[in-house]
Amino acid sequence: MSKVLVREEIAEAGIRLLRERGFEVDVDGDSDLDEAIGRYDAIIVRSATKVTADLIEAARKLDAARSR
Asked: In the 8-state DSSP scheme, what is residue 33?
């Protein structure tokens, strides 16, 4: 099962849809993202979260990190 981190507030319907499609979803806007991102296969952000090159480098499981 793929793990998804929802970093910012999204509609509950969106979270429910992800879970219905078989994703394990964690909603967490407070933890240290540099530390947490390595545990997830995907991350959902809006405009407040800045996804930097260093952050992607730390995200060993994210698709973007594997496609380099």
From this structure: H
